[in-house]
Amino acid sequence: MKLFTQAQYDQLIQNGKDMGEYKDHHPVVRLFITGTACTWLLTELCPDDPDIAFGLCDLGMGFPEIGYVSIQEITDAQGPFQRLERDMYFEGQYPISVYAEAARDIGQITLDEKSLKQAAYKP
């Protein structure tokens, strides 16, 4: 399976070109390693080096964080019985800041609508 569809790749690159002072893109793709708690919600790829992605990263240790990650390093994290896959049904409904806030609240990336709504409307 390809990590990104052409439409996702194009959107990730377009988001990476956005040089706005405060950008808070919706995640474009969700990657995960089967059999683990490792998950990535990616919002952009660096147009000059598409191996560098930006998004919310969760290695399953209870400390998800926003930052940059190498696509090659994510790919290399696969084991003989764990595969890197793309969530074919994921659609980012909120800006990445909302996913990050919800993840901080519960210690892992979540797609739970109640948790995301609470994070979105936090004062």
From TrEMBL:
Pfam families: DUF2958 (PF11171). This is DUF2958 domain-containing protein. It comes from Mucilaginibacter psychrotolerans.
